[in-house]
Amino acid sequence: MLLLQFSTSHYCRKARLALGYKKIPYQVKNLTPGLHALQLKPLTGLTTVPVLIPDSATGKAIADSTHILTFLENYCPEPTFFLAKKPQQTEASMLEDWLDESIGTATRFVYYDYRSGAGKQIDPSLFSQLVIAVVQKQYGINQASVELAASRIASCLAELSGRWQNSMYLVGDRFSIADIAAAALLSPLALIPYYQEQYPWLFERIAQIHQLCGEPLPPGINQ
Ligand SMILES: N[C@@H](CCC(=O)N[C@@H](CS)C(=O)NCC(=O)O)C(=O)O
């Protein structure tokens, strides 16, 4: 299998966690931001990564991390990350979709805002700051949208703390796509001191899930 990705994308991290959990061998191809659309559009009709190509001979390409997880579950049912009871699987799917569509975007806003301000020293190079400025413009990252994103993340973490602090799992009694989505899509917060100080349990759980899936820890989380 081949995973087309940006190495730093938290959505691509989500696909890698799923591949790792199922111990499916794969290779990655890192695309160049800016040129990626030229490669992806003809393949999937979209411009986003991750994209999974299960078999280069068929030319089939799967876009969107949610679709990739569903494909992987059908391709390799064990170990499963779908829950046996239908209401629980529905709850896990809803959490996964919310984390994808709302929270993954919110972490991007807060992360890039931090990287261009208080966290500039992480990489003050002209190139890095230029990339960050382009991303901020592309997604409309400004003071108002960052405040909105931060309040979404606060609500999300209040919800997750009730779940992850009482159980190893966000839904039911087994590891699910909700745990994978949360571990990947909240991981950019690990570089921001405020979140490290306020939510130590979050980064412990993110680290455990990365270990379970055989994926290197995200920047900002140490062994
Ligand atoms: N809902 C999508 C979101 C993926 C996404 O936003 N990917 C970003 C990188 S983090 C991307 O490819 N951006 C480039 C673009 O939109 O052209 C998924 O789950 O795969």
Give a written overview of the molecule.
- Keywords: Transferase.
- This protein is mainly alpha-helical and 223 residues long.
- It has two domains: 2-75, Glutaredoxin (3-Layer(aba) Sandwich), CATH 3.40.30.10; 86-213, Glutathione S-transferase Yfyf (Class Pi), Chain A, domain 2 (Up-down Bundle).
- 57% of the residues lie in helices and 6% in strands.
- The chain contains nine helices and four strands; from the N terminus they run βαβαββααααααα.
- It has helices at 10-21, 36-44, 65-75, 86-116, 126-139, 143-164, 177-185, 193-198, 200-213, and strands at 2-5, 27-30, 51-53, 62-63.
- The chain has a four-stranded mixed beta sheet with strand order 2-1-3-4, covered by helices on one side.
- The longest helix is centred in the middle third of the chain and has 31 residues, at 86-116.
- The radius of gyration is 17 Å and the shape is globular.
- Residues 6, 9, 11, 37, 47-50, 64-66, 100 line the site of glutathione.
- Glutathione (GSH) binds next to helix 3.
**Any idea of the CATH class of the largest domain?**
Mainly Alpha
Task: Specify the structural class.
Answer: mainly alpha
Strand order of the largest sheet: 2-1-3-4
Uncertain segments are: none
Roughly what is the average pLDDT, rounded to an integer?
96
Largest sheet: 4 strands, mixed
How is the CATH topology of the largest domain named?
Glutathione S-transferase Yfyf (Class Pi), Chain A, domain 2
How many helical stretches?
9
What is the correct CATH architecture of the largest domain?
Up-down Bundle
Counting DSSP E segments of at least 2 residues, the number of strands comes to 4
How much of the residues is beta strand, in percent? 5-15%
The Rg value, from CA coordinates, equals: 17 Å
Spell out which ligands are present: glutathione
* Assembly status: single chain
Estimate nothing, just give the exact number of structural domains: 2
As a percent range, the share of helical residues equals: 55-70%
Question: Which term fits the overall shape?
Answer: globular
What pattern of helices and strands is seen along the backbone? EHEHEEHHHHHHH
End-to-end gap? 29 Å
